[in-house]
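User: I'll paste a sequence; please echo it back and then give the predicted structure.

Assistant: Echoing your sequence first, then the prediction.
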Amino acid sequence: MAVAALAVIEIAGAAWSAYQQHKAGQNAKKAGEAEQSAAEDQAQLAEYNAQVAGLQAQDTIDRGAIEEARFRTGVRGMIGAQRAAAAGNNLDVAYGSPLDIQADAAFLGELDALQIKSNAARSAWGYKVQQVDLTRSAAITRKGGQFAALQGQQAAQQANYAAIGTAFSAGSSLLQTRYGFRNSYPAGTVSAIDASYYRAASLW
């Protein structure tokens, strides 16, 4: 009976150890899935911010174009006023000082218009760079989450293999006890071991 009791203790301990290994593997898998879910949320947020940055870049270009066109219209209006003033003073608007004044106004106006366009392009470039960085960040974060989930799955598989090994080892020990030393057991001992084995197996 002492041998049977030892067998029961061994099987019960092995079953508990195998269960703990399996449970640890499942916890590792859940942790990996949770990390992947959090990474996916961060990736989606980064992608949303990237889209916003892209819209801001386009809006900056559009507003710059509108401001440039408005400024050019203002310059043409100013030149028109200069021509009207010169003609009102009986001056030839296509010759001499009146023409030089118009040319200077047109030249300076063009420089200012190009500066407006350049400023808008620089601002839009900053948004575009931000968009690219956020898109790359989203991709890296998503891959990190997928890797974490894969690690969790691998840990769960390894834990399951370990649990199976533990249970198999315990079963082998019981078979050795049952069949390897059957002739040395007192009458009824083998039956007691059989019953203890099945009780222990039910714990799993």
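Residues 2-201 form one domain. The longest helix spans residues 2-88.
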